[in-house]
């Protein structure tokens, strides 16, 4: 990733070697894989130990106990003269009975809810998996006829790559791509052979098994994918259900029931619960207790993980879609086998309401916090699936102080989203970014101001940048992070956002960083619609349209050391072009900023924002003569980077930066 788009202060903030998460944190590794640090990086940047200490101090007792237990298992289990793999095998019934009808009916609902593009992608991915070609994080390994699980090339990827490989996504892609097994015997036999080979070569209890093929998150996904595949096969006359895969699914569920990820929680716990329910429904002729366990986990997660507005507490739209999909699946399966669904279904309906108000006009999710496209199903497809499972969205107020903090202000054909919420839960900072008081913008159904997304979860400079204030449409004081970050997932001492005004057409909020031994400052931002009355900040869908206001006024003030400066940045979508009058080199050159390349005049008419040759809006900065136009990275999918326009305005601390966004051509 090029540093050309960063100021010198920003470049200093991105260390060459970013540290790894503490032991037991998600994505951590016993070995250095795919650019992830080996842990010694914690010593390489000042302040990283403090960030680690804050992260650990906020963790719950069950998390710390779980990390300790995992480390003990890794140290002890492989050395014991006990065949744990064989012990699990003995607990599998000789001839396990299956009842696949509810899972098959649920699969049909899910498949029918997907767009044709999603189904075509699923078919392509299934064929590639059958050919031994796997692409995750935009990185491909071609194995050929057999997956070599010890291949060094796997360990050269981020650990997330191996975990996705071990989840056997190809099975789910196959059943989502085609209604019937007809004509797919070769694809099926190859995928089954890959799974059987893995089963023979990946025993429970091998070295680092809980970080490799037997990571409970991967186990959960395997169970869901295999259960759907078994039900799909059973639904076709003349298609033999593979007995070995049935036994493997049962054994994986036995393992998962003993390794529920209480120590991680979050979306992992919800995946565990959904997998146990699916396995319990598939094997409901056996007295497993898995359905009851999964339902209780989802009830508890519903109380602990969902906010007052229905949003998931990790504040990632991608993970919100993921967990909502699991709640819908669980509700449908529980209903099919006569179990109570009220508690689980209510959570799903509130989460549906939140997603319906947050989804973009295109049916996609905004890339807030750790979010990318193409990982979860589309927001529109997820909502259709929920409705197919007899769920109805319940929209709750976005203005509740215990909500996610997303407000929208509508003007004409445009909608601006203003983030006045805190970052994710203190005990689970994994997917949180320094996006406090950030904004996003859609005009006429097109995104204008966009968030950054995430490249991967490795402890590397891209990860540090994606989580930084510099990557978001907000203000940054003197190149400092409001909340220090380290490794892949750690966060230091937190700031809190205070909403000072919420008046429908005007919202004002602030957050402050207070430090005894370091810089302290306060950032205040207000956003208001401009023009005639009739705006709405009620939380309608981005781009859903209001009526008459012609744009928005954003006012930033950052106070701190009078000798310091702060920078307000606006990152545009890659499909947008920003045009303005360049500042002449001779006029702009100074000792402080000798290179004027990229400087534009703010002017009274502002800068044009165009897409496909059409003018969408303009942006200007009253009281600011010059702005810097550069490029910044955009990570729309795992492993993919694009450049897009970015405007930066730097002012002394205490001064205001005023931004006028207009969608009325006559206003300029």
UniProtKB/TrEMBL annotation:
Query: Where is it located?
Result: Periplasm
The segment annotated Disordered runs over: 1-46, 510-558, 586-607
Ranges annotated as biased composition (Low complexity): 528-539
Quote the SUPFAM superfamilies the UniProt record gives. Answer: Chondroitin AC/alginate lyase (SSF48230)
List each copy of the Heparinase II/III-like C-terminal domain by range.
403-642
Alphabetized GO MF terms = lyase activity
InterPro entries in UniProt: Chondroitin_lyas, Hepar_II_III_C, Hepar_II_III_N
* CC per GO annotation: periplasmic space
The cross-references to Pfam families, in alphabetical order and at most eight, read: Hepar_II_III_C, Hepar_II_III_N
- What are the residue boundaries of the Heparin-sulfate lyase N-terminal domain, all occurrences included? 112-375
Q: Which UniProt keywords apply?
A: Lyase, Periplasm, Signal
Q: Where is the composition biased (Basic and acidic residues)?
A: 27-46, 598-607
- The molecule here is called Uncharacterized protein
